[in-house]
Design a protein that fits this description.
The complex is a heterodimer of chains A (337) and B (344). With 337 residues, chain A is an all-alpha fold. In chain A, 69% of the residues lie in helices and 0% in strands. In chain B, 42% of the residues are buried. Chain B is mostly helical. In chain B, helix 8 (200-237) crosses helix 10. The chains are: A mainly alpha (337), B mainly alpha (344). The interface between A and B is large, with 60 and 71 residues.
Chain lengths: 337, 344
């Protein structure tokens, strides 16, 4: 269906011969896909390397590490050759716990990220496309969820569910994780909804789901990717907050539960920095990695940012660049309140 | 002269804006109450029985009125859900928020009233100070965009955004209280030597104890505001009127503050309003780490002893503060920047 493709791409010259059309559309489709991928920049490379490193830790450390629950009689000893990051109060290996905890936090973070993505797509894209009272209702629900403070709500819900498993914890965090992304997606969908090629597809009698999946969603992919990184980061922070006050999963290690045990095992009073520093640093590392990747994705969404990163000659009168500006704010970031 | 019809339609727009805002916050308020009402009733198990058991273990015999009060807050199997809801709403507005288990037999409202001033004083002051530092750093980084200062401040602010703030508090305790011994470890005042009251001893002790928590909240709250202000500043600097101002030969200082910062700061005010709304419920975990006698510490105690009535009361007060402050900010913003009234 070449007509549809040209329709969607919106950039192919209609006067071209039909024979050229396929190739032209394929070329510009490639160009569009290429345009959606973040440009290779120092930030992207830094972000991806950090995330890759953390992923390696999460995957491989548990395979080689000691049993994380194995207690021994050398409680609260500092880093040594046998215990690279020292031991906890009951003599467990901190490095082994760190590996399992990173894995747990990442699993929870990505699960919540996926659920938030689905929910925000339903509320932000589907509702907006349908329009009318459905849109009004979905927008109202989204705005109400945005204004109700997230962390206190998750604490109240989590406190009333005894003995949560990981799945339950993911569900609880997801309750508040989707609204920010939904608002951003709604704004984008509103602008795409009225564009010519979408109207053309509607008039041609396309099924609404097909219009959404083929005409609208591809244009939202960069925004969705950016919101996804925010959701994952927000979820990892929420999870660590919940677990830190003892409301975490009872069946899985996470960076938050590690901090919970460190705090309750008086790691601070004993000065056991090797116990409470690594989990927080790991969260910060994941956060920095996700933020850097997110910046790179934003350069795709917001052309102003691309201009801003171009080097300008030095020695300007006031020492600043004369470029159009990044108007990115970190509104979409959830989790930490 | 403006025609009367145009004036009327402008007034109508204004009216519509305010009505929409009032309507939205009413819906949000009802939603918050309903969530609060629904959560304990949707949970597995029977929170009423477990709460009554715990009350009985603490305070001996349970009066029928106490049982009725608990049931109206947490759920009751006998009466219908609709009448329960109205009973619940009535109790909320008449101040019958139930009895706390943790601080038995104190009323939930009294518990909250005792903790609230600590949190509002600590986090409120810190939020205001944080706002000024954020704006100054943001203006400086945006003005010298791409230079050394910006290249240090912006990445650091980005990383600080993704650091768990309670962990930062732990580090601060370890560094400043444990290792360097500059500040006390925890608490709100020196309870051994002073008694709470309007005396200089008490106030100075409270201020001394508030330093480290305030510092922790300050550092962890800076990030987002600095980045936001910096980006707005860069954005404003590319406007034509800045070029005009430069061409006129105005001093850089005047352009920086009078032209660029003055216009770039507008969105920051709305951010400031939001963070004021989060004064009560925004630093829960930091307060807990410092055992500061505020809302956060109380919430932790409520969580640890499954004190559902207190937990619900705390959630309610946190939510209501956020709603009320956001409402006021929205109205003020409509006054400061009339464009928002039409766009919305």
């Amino acid at each position: 269906m070449p007509e549809e493709n040209t329709n969607q791409l919106n950039s192919v010259d209609n006067t071209k011969l039909v024979g050229n059309m396929n190739r032209a559309s394929r070329n510009s489709r490639l160009a569009i896909i290429k345009g959606m991928l973040p440009k290779r920049s120092a930030r992207l490379i830094a972000g991806l390397s950090i995330l890759g490193l953390v992923l390696l830790v999460a995957i491989f450390l548990p395979l080689f590490a000691k049993e994380p629950n194995q207690i021994s009689d050398i409680g609260l000893t500092g880093p040594s050759a046998s215990h690279l990051l020292g031991t906890t109060k009951s003599g467990q290996d901190v490095l082994a716990q760190l590996g399992y905890s990173t894995r747990g936090s990442l699993i929870i973070g990505f699960s919540v990220g996926v659920i938030a993505l689905i929910l925000s797509t339903i509320f932000g894209v589907l509702g907006t496309y349908i329009g009318g009272w459905v849109d009004e209702t979905f927008a109202l629900i989204t705005n109400v969820m945005l204004v109700i403070p997230g962390l206190p709500l998750t604490i109240v819900i989590a406190a009333m569910i005894p003995n949560k498993g990981t799945g339950m914890l993911v569900a609880v965090i997801s309750v508040t994780a989707w609204a920010g992304a939904s608002r951003v997606l709604r704004a984008q969908t509103l602008s795409i909804r009225g564009r010519d090629y979408v109207l053309a597809a509607r008039i041609a009698g396309e099924h609404p789901l097909r219009v959404i999946c083929v005409e609208i969603l591809p244009n939202l992919l960069p925004v969705m990717a950016s919101q996804f990184t925010f959701s994952v980061l927000g979820a990892i922070l929420s999870e660590s907050s919940l677990s830190f006050i003892g409301l975490g999963s009872s069946s899985q290690f996470s960076l938050g539960t590690m901090l919970f045990y460190a705090q309750n095992g008086s790691a601070l009073n004993a000065g056991a920095w090797w116990w409470f520093l690594p989990p927080g640093l790991m969260i910060a590392l994941v956060g920095a990695g996700l933020s850097f990747v997110n910046f790179s994705i934003d350069e795709v969404i917001n052309p102003h940012l691309r201009n801003a990163s171009v080097k300008t000659p030095k020695g300007h009168k006031h020492g600043r660049k004369r470029t159009s500006a990044p108007d990115k704010t970190l509104e979409g970031k959830g989790g930490q309140e | 002269m403006a025609s009367p019809t145009r004036k009327a339609s402008w007034g109508g727009n204004k009216m519509k804006f305010y009505l929409r805002k009032i309507g939205f916050y009413l819906v949000a308020f009802v939603a918050a109450i309903t969530i609060n009402f629904a959560i304990p009733r949707m949970m597995p198990g029977n929170p009423v029985d477990s709460l009554i058991d715990r009350l009985a273990a603490k305070g001996g015999a349970i009066a029928p009125e106490t049982r009725a009060a608990v049931q109206s807050m947490l759920g009751d199997t006998q009466t219908g859900i609709v009448s329960q809801y109205f009973e619940y709403v009535k109790n909320i507005f008449t101040g019958h928020w139930g009895v706390s288990v943790t601080f038995f037999p104190t009323q939930v409202t009294e518990c909250i009233a005792s903790a609230l001033p600590w949190t509002v004083a600590l986090v409120g002051c810190t939020t205001v100070i944080s706002f000024f530092i954020q704006q100054l750093l943001g203006i400086a980084a945006g003005w010298r965009h791409g230079r050394l200062f910006d290249n240090i401040v912006s990445p650091v602010a980005t990383v600080f955004q993704s650091v768990p703030y309670f962990w930062l508090a732990l580090i601060f305790i370890w560094l400043f209280a444990k290792t360097l011994n500059i500040f006390p470890l925890s608490g709100g005042y020196d309870y051994r030597s002073v008694t709470p009251g309007f005396s200089w001893d008490f106030i100075s002790s409270a201020l001394y104890y508030a330093c480290l928590p305030a510092l922790a909240i300050l550092v962890s709250s800076l990030g987002a505001g600095v980045i936001g202000m910096r980006n707005m500043m860069v954005s404003t600097l590319s406007e034509d009127y800045i070029t005009t101002a430069e061409a006129k030969g105005l001093s850089p200082r005047r352009i920086k503050y009078g032209y660029a910062a003055r216009n770039a700061i507008l969105p920051s005010f709305s951010g400031f309003g939001t963070s004021l709304g989060h004064v009560v419920g925004g630093s829960l975990l930091t307060e807990q780490v410092f055992s500061y006698p505020g809302i956060g510490q109380m919430m932790l105690q409520a969580v640890q002893s499954n004190d559902y009535a207190l937990l619900q009361g705390l959630f309610l007060i946190i939510t209501v503060t956020v709603l009320v402050v956001n409402f006021i900010v929205d109205l003020l913003y409509g006054l400061v920047d009339p464009r928002t009234r039409i766009q919305d």
